[in-house]
Amino acid sequence: MKHFALFLAAAFSVTFAKDLAPNKTHAVLNISYTNFDDVPQKNKTLTFVGESKPKNKIVVKTNGYGEVSFLIPREDSYTILCESLTGAFECGKTPYVSLKASYGSVNVAFDDTRAELHGVSFKAGSAELLPSSLSTLDKTIAGLKKNAKAKVEIEGHTSSEGGEEFNQKLSEDRANSVRDYMIQKGISKDRVTAVGYGFSRPKASNDTEDGRRQNRRIEVRVTNPDEVNVSAE
């Protein structure tokens, strides 16, 4: 029996679906979904989109224990989308599911009250949004409109290039650019705040170009999760 290993959030487990079996074209994938405090995320939606075959889209929902098992087509790798108050966000990728794969298990960890807005970028050294950013922002805005009670904080983060004072202001200006765009698109200004953290909260080392690229980011955080139903539906 062949197994394909899926590594997300540095976690790997071996649990198998009791009521499913692989067939000629599909393998069995078992998912355990928690937040970053290891609390099971029950009744949450996950979407798997084939990278080479985008039409291979599978939407599943976890049970009361934050688990779900399903059949997944072989010969592709998948982007995993997790739902949040502000829309669906990429929360992982699967490696290639080979033709010989039978079973795989993975732990997905995601905080649905916080997300990095992948794809949001700016002109170098400025707070001017690039046109390529707008699709991600529009998706976030659509999620906010569906969840009318949600309030969010837009967080700007930078790399360490350019010094502390420059990056602090740049992070604030970029967060405000995102806030302004959301307001222009119909989100009430009292629902969106903006804050800049400069390079004080890096997610990777600033010693490499890849690390600096990861640190230049915009994140969105729901500030009143207890007042709303955390769902994109």
TrEMBL record:
Keywords: Cell outer membrane, Membrane, Signal
UniProt-listed PROSITE patterns: OMPA_2 (PS51123)
Stretches assigned to coiled coil: none
Identification of the protein by name: OmpA family protein
Domain OmpA-like: 109-226
Biased composition (Basic and acidic residues): 204-220
Main location class: membrane
Origin species: Fibrobacter intestinalis
SUPFAM superfamilies cross-referenced by the UniProt entry: OmpA-like (SSF103088)
One Pfam family it belongs to: OmpA
Annotated region (Disordered), positions in chain: 196-233
Signal peptide as annotated in the record: 1-17
GO terms under cellular component: cell outer membrane
Subcellular location per the Swiss-Prot or TrEMBL entry: Cell outer membrane
